[in-house]
Amino acid sequence: MVRIIAASFVIYSIVLTSISTVFLFIPRGEALSIQHTPVEQIVVGSKAEIAAILKGAVGDYNVTVHYKIQSSNHWKLRQMQLTARTGNTYMYEIPANETTESVDYQICARDQSNIRVCTQTYTILVADFYFVAYLTPIFYANRTSSMDIGIQSVNGFNRTIYLSISGPTTQKITTTFEPSSVTPVPSKTSTVKLHFGIQASAPATKYDLTVSGTSGTIKRSFVMTLSVPDFELNVTRFDQALKRGDRASFTITLRSLYGFDGDVTIYVKGLPEGASYRLSASELHLDGIATILLLIEATSSLEKGTYIVIVSAIGGGRVNNFDFTLVII
Questions:
Q1: What is the dotted CATH code of the domain comprising 230-328?
Q2: The dihedral of CA 285, 286, 287, 293: what is its sign?
Q3: Which one of 15, 58, 238, 328 is at 20 to 30 Å from 253 when CA atoms are compared?
Q4: Looking at residue 26, what is its pLDDT?
């Protein structure tokens, strides 16, 4: 009986050894791998189609794409779906509203044996453009002025951009682009001219204008403030009346408005015969506040009465007048 049991044990051991040997030599097959052609570039606002072919191992795969825009540290994880394309092709489209700038992404896959592989991290360059305004314009009335506007191509953007401007301008201010559309040199800055025509009667103020560029569904804009300057003129009288044979002093005050910075010439009109005037300065450069002394002299032969005197200041395409009453006693 003991011999039979021992023999049986020997036979059982041989069988187990044989089975174990056969199991170890079963080939596992091709290793799990991801075949992917990187998406290198798209235009801003376009969908990014990510495709990957899975090979190796057996059974179903769990395939995901991880992505983020470059200015963010937040990675998004999305499931890729098996498509009807040839082989084990998985797809995911990054939505257009998420491609506002260049995107980093990586594809990962896991098989039923819990083996996981990932690709390297790729970058999708998003082609775009933006404006570069070289100055904040201050344009004077009664003249035509221009400014340069740069259009910077980003990541090779080279589509035609159509230019426009909008805002609360009046019929007395005209704007034109030269040229009205531009195809930027890839990854460089192209320059266009923006011309302004300011009529003499255009209201002096600051105008917020929106410059826009449109290329297909892409629209980029920036707001600039256009200043149409002017100056304020005021005359202060120190003497209530002027006696014949005497003199009176007046102060002319000039004040810049909306960035006025220019030459101004002063004139005095309306004095009666027998009266004369002198100015401490008939011309000056105004940039802020300036005062001028006006001295009026009356001869003894000047008739008594009330006269309207006009002080005129001309500069920057503007003619400003201030009139006051001169009483001769």
A1: 2.60.40.10
A2: positive
A3: 328
A4: 35
